Automatic annotation (TrEMBL):
This is YCII-related domain-containing protein.
Length: 93
């Protein structure tokens, strides 16, 4: 389980991810990850996402009802599950 914050009420959180070493398995997993977050966006959970210019890092801003929901989202991220990215920081606001 990923340590996040102590928020019990709905809140926003900015997740910072960093890519690990690249390999040939990444491509299907990245597409799966895009679909995963697009589905969350359609449910009103993802507010914004993007990459840092010329870096192997990206971010996602989420709206979650609790830390439990946040942990479930992180733990089910296909790129986390396949060990392609790691969560560097979760910053609630």
């Amino acid at each position: 389980m990923t340590q996040t914050s102590s928020y019990k009420e709905p809140h926003h959180v900015m997740l910072f991810f960093e890519e690990k070493e690249s390999n040939s398995i990444e491509q299907p997993c990245i597409k799966e990850r895009i679909n995963y977050y697009e589905n969350l966006k359609n449910k009103g959970k993802v507010l914004m996402s993007g990459n840092f210019w010329n870096q192997a890092r990206n971010f996602i801003i989420l709206y979650v009802s609790s830390d439990t929901e946040l942990e479930q989202i992180i733990d089910n991220d296909p790129a986390i599950l396949h060990n392609i990215v790691e969560l560097v920081r979760a910053m609630p606001f």
